[in-house]
Please model this.
Amino acid sequence: MDNRKLIDYIETVVKLEELCFVQQNVVYNLDVRINSCNTPYKNEIKNPVYPEKDNSAADFFSEFVDSFENIIYTVISIFAILYATFFVLFAALKIKPVYSRAFKPAILLTVLLPFFIFLICRAKDHHKHRKQMQVYDHAVSSVREKNKEIKQYNAHLKTQYNAIRNRLREEKEQKEQIIQEYQKTKRTLDKYYDLDIIYYKYRNYANMTSILEYLLSGRCKELEGHEGAYNILEHEILIGQVLTKLDTIIERLDAIEQNQNLLYESILSCKSDINQITDTIVSSTRAITLENNETNKTLASIEYTNRINKINIQYLADMEAYKALRLH
Model:
């Protein structure tokens, strides 16, 4: 079997497998984007925290009274004892007390002192709270204006994205064309497999990529035999060095980087193509919608399906060259 032509054949099969994988996921991604069409709304700004009135003066006064209460009672008691002592003493000596005028105001001042302190602290707290309220009112006003702008922006954005979403849904025909091209690609792939060059057991994306890697790296030159690609693949599957289920491979992509490097690079490239094609189609539809352009001749989906159609036609034309490689 011509080794170079065999490699060319398997490379073509792998490319067809990649195209099928990409087209399937482009259709899936378009469905997701059509249904969700994530709109980058702006979040409204929250109002600042309302400044609670400072009760430090009341707290201070309460603590002050608690500690002052004992002091005032002590002072009054001392004054009472001294007053009584001096009163008795002066009465006995028949001396007229001269301190009575200062004594009463002193007691009155001592009793009223905490209330003066409370009024001063309360006035200070009131002034502080008034300033905080001025700042708060200004901030609330600013937030209200910004939120008004955000609401207008979101309303405008919602209108735009609703139009885009509706346009994408109206382009169902274009999505159907992508599905039709996928089916054509799958038929082309099946025709390549039907050449009966590859044993049916190994006809899938993962196996074909591993076989191609063996041939390109020089680990083998043929498919069959003790040192052939099939035998190497079976051995590596048995010892767990190679994964063959595509869903498992995609979930554990990093696990195949070492032993299935070609498949690893292939899937990474496909994922990049899937995202790029999906983004291009959605962006194209978005641009046409926002420009109020009713024509769909420039839709990226049409350009994509046309490109895939040309690839399928070329691969079908090349298929005749590989018929001589079929199994006997």
The radius of gyration is 44 Å. The mean pLDDT is 77.
